[in-house]
Design a protein that fits this description.
Distance between the termini: 37 Å
Order of helices and strands: HEEHEHEEEEHHEEEE
Low-confidence stretches: none
Number of helices: 5
Mean pLDDT: 95
Structural class: alpha+beta
Number of strands: 11
Length: 213
């Protein structure tokens, strides 16, 4: 949950900055360091015993975004004032995005968040990216979910060991890195628009990065 929560919360910082007309130049993560603690013991930290937690990959996604923020529209997002006042506790999850455009690239972070961490079917998401000055774009799709960029789920599949072997630790370190959902691929652009479809699991986060010449 910390991954999708962080994506949703940090995006609302920009919207609050717009509302109050302040210049938002940066933000920090309220995280801590605890020595000699059990593996994945639930502290508000970014790593456990040297293994990166899934939330750290959200910050890696942010690090891949560059340029100027652009408007995002959609019909499955909570208004930022509702998130501010009562968080995300309705019948549906918050499915929203944060996007930016650079000289020859665009980046879109999409999340599927809800306060209640319960099992739910993945949600179909359709992105329409407009204003691309090319006929093709190279698409990179990074993902955080139960199968990607998630050392915690990998650790649970191992049986939640509190004394993992060196082989297990190596596997956890690898699973703690930001992973792609699929290999980079070219996507067609028609009339300046590209259409991207995906199924996004509950509490999942995707980063779509498109590059063109």
């Amino acid at each position: 949950m910390y991954s999708s929560y962080t994506a949703a919360a940090f995006a609302r910082k920009y919207e609050l900055a717009d509302l109050y007309r302040v210049r938002f130049t940066g933000a920090v993560s309220w995280s801590f360091e605890f020595e000699n603690q059990p593996w994945f013991d639930g502290f508000r930290d970014l790593a456990t015993n040297g293994v990166d937690k899934p939330v750290l990959n959200v910050f890696r996604m942010f690090g891949l975004m560059s340029g100027s923020r652009v408007r995002v529209g959609g019909d499955r997002a909570y208004h930022f004032t509702a998130v501010r006042d009562s968080s995300v506790r309705g019948l549906r999850p918050d499915i929203d995005a944060l996007a930016c455009v650079d000289k020859n690239a665009a980046s879109i972070m999409v999340w599927n968040y809800h306060d209640d961490d319960v099992q739910a079917a993945p949600s179909p998401v359709e992105l329409t990216v407009r204003g691309i000055p090319a006929r093709k774009a190279l698409l990179f799709h990074y993902r955080i979910d139960g199968e990607h960029s998630n050392s915690y789920e990998a650790w649970k599949r191992m049986g939640s060991p509190q004394n993992p072997t060196l082989v297990q630790i190596t596997a956890l370190e690898r699973s703690g890195q930001l992973q792609m959902l699929s290999s980079p691929a070219w996507t067609d652009v028609s009339g300046g628009k590209a259409l991207i479809r995906m199924d996004l699991p509950r509490q999942g986060v995707s980063l779509i990065r498109m590059e063109w010449n």
